[in-house]
Amino acid sequence: MLAIIIPYYKFTFFEVTLESLASQINQRFKVYIGDDASPENPSDLLEHYKGKFDFEYHRFEENLGGISLTKQWERCIALSGNEEWIMILGDDDVLGENVVEGFYGNLPEIEQDGINVVRFATRLIDEKGDCISRIYQHPKLEKGLDFFIRKLKWETRSSLSEYIFKRKSFLEKKIQYYPFGFYSDDRAWVDFAADKPIFSINNILIFIRISSQSLSGSTDKNIVKKSEYLYVKHFYDNELERLSKKNRLFILKKVEFFFYLNKKINLIDWILLYIRYFKCLDIKELYRFHKRLFKFFLNEKSSIYNT
């Protein structure tokens, strides 16, 4: 069975989210709502949905999401039972009416292939519920590292609500903490997928809301950059050799750029970066790296990427 976890905090769009659950064609799921000590109590609204779908509501007395979103996600998952599959649904996102039906319709193939992570097509909506983006679809089967590269290159988008994953994978890997949860979910899909591809259901939509109240709609760029560095650095340190030469060079340049921004990077880090460039056996890129590095140490940062 499927557990749908809602880490609740903001009331504004919550009714639309609940209505999308009540409207599911297939009701073979249970919802667990973890209230992160919100000042906006949803109890009266939830009364209206009793009997419309199966749910449990729990209010936490201490706000955790303001400190660690990943810990809030994890304690909300802990509210659930022993459902094999889990979805974490944002309190302002909206499921198409056939999301659950589509999941169960594809489940025989998913189980036959040993899949650990499933995702749906998405479309962005604004505060009024109007669509503000194209439909984002994905390869039906995609390796986690291929998704990692596509997302970094801005060839796709991704958010927490559009995924369903195995409880077993979550218990084994957990969710890596990054500031404000940025890139924590992206890392989770690669970790959870393990050696199996991510399975995409492209004919069914989940609607992701972008508003002034959403975290993704009001973002401190410095926090995002710090999270991105930690995220990319993990793959730079642990997965680089599994990437193609082209993608290795792409990651090396990303890490190099982060190094330029961070004056605390030590000599050993620069040496390791140089060795990894050298191992790519690309004389032209190694030469360009030399030029950028020389300019950096001459404090000509403004022209560092003009070569």
Describe this structure in words.
Residues 4-122 form the Glycosyltransferase 2-like domain. It comes from Flavobacterium granuli. This is GT2 family glycosyltransferase. Keywords: Transferase. This protein has helices at 14-22, 43-48, 69-77, 99-112, 144-152, 167-173, 184-193, 221-238, 245-261, 267-279, 283-297, and strands at 2-8, 29-36, 55-60, 85-88, 94-95, 117-125, 141-142, 163-166, 198-209. It is of the alpha/beta class. The chain has two domains: 2-217, Alpha-Beta Complex (Spore Coat Polysaccharide Biosynthesis Protein SpsA, Chain A); 244-303, no CATH class. Strands 1, 2, 3, 4, 5, 6, 7, 8 and 9 form a nine-stranded mixed β-sheet that branches. Strand 2 (29-36), helix 2 (43-48) and strand 3 (55-60) form a beta-alpha-beta unit. Helix 6 (167-173) packs across helix 7 and helix 9 packs antiparallel against helix 10 (267-279). The model has no long low-confidence stretch (mean pLDDT 93).
Assign the CATH architecture of the largest domain: Alpha-Beta Complex
Main β-sheet description: 9 strands, mixed
Low-confidence stretches: none
Could you tell me the strand content as a percent range?
A: 15-25%
- In total, the number of domains comes to 2
Keywords: Transferase
Pfam family, one: Glycos_transf_2
Protein name: GT2 family glycosyltransferase
Domain Glycosyltransferase 2-like: 4-122
